[in-house]
Amino acid sequence: MLNQDPRPNDSKIFVFSLIVSAFKKILPARLRRTAGEILFGVTPAIPVTLTSTLSRKAPRNAFLFGFGTAFVLCFIVIFLWTMAVGSFKGNDPSRLYFSQDYTNLINYLVLVPLYVGLASALIVLSSETWIRFRLDSPLYEASGIRLPRLSIGIALFVVVGASAALTCTFISECLDPNIVEKTSWYIAHVDATGQRSLGGLGVYYALLTFSMFLICFSALVALGLIIITAAEAGRCLRSSMTTKPATFDELAENLTGFVRAYIVAKAMTGVLMLNYVTWNWINPPKPSFNVIGFGALLAVIGLFFVSFPRYYVELEWYALSVRRAVAKGKPVPVESSDLRSRNVRLIANALDILIISGFIQSIVGSVLRWLKG
Length: 373
Description:
The protein is mostly helical. It has one domain (about 10-30, about 50-370). It is about 70% helix and about 5% strand. A hairpin with a 5-residue loop joins strand 5 and strand 6. It starts with 10 loop residues before the first helix and ends with a helix.
């Protein structure tokens, strides 16, 4: 007798299928439809001309430009500025000089340029993938057009607003001696009551922090584009009239940009995790809203949302393969297919093994320090 609910042997896809099934059982059908329209029915209104003229080297060029710009603005400018105002090096034990701020030295030399470059490449890749999916892919033709469209202006408003709010919270914590004990290199003055104030360098640091939040939230929106692309591909694969793609190779070819964006998003998340680890390992601040919140957000994104689109498409292809096998009277497949090439799988596995374990330890350490008060 045919298994009415076949599952693939791949452990991750199997677990993902169980999660999807659980949500379907827990949530009423009407609520699932409403949530689907909210999450996936709002498609991004990106002008075709914005990405249709991009060259194949555009993601690489975006990475190089983002990396170089961040390196100059974060390290070179601050190095020269702290040298000019005398906060690069000194003997005051109550002050954290830039030369002693090993967390930011590592971040500004390597990690911030890396994640800014990767975020820039991800934004280009996801936009390009979505436009080409709409214009050229038979998957989009089969899935139909979803309305309404999400205005770029609305997305920009949310990104800027969230970045500004977090920057204000972060800077207020930097000015609080109960959270950051030493007076950092960007603090211009401390009065007799211990009140800290920002000078020109401090204002620049605040603007730089705002820019980092801005690029990270923009990359998060770009990840949303990848999720929407997966949702549209999944609609095609679920359709009872689906004849395309005929083979998994054809599906993978249609989603080449999708897979490239996935691995860039995973790499960026890995670098942000390293950033968090250095932030809590070298000069650990006292646990605060930003410390715990940033770690929790990274955990959710890195452990679930980055891989969710790929799992979703692979699970829908597996379900389609089962339906096709049943219709032809052939054995039901037990192995799911992987959209990633061998090299992409190696990179993804290396990121999982080398980075995520250290990140989890850092998260646990932050929570324990917070619980101890």
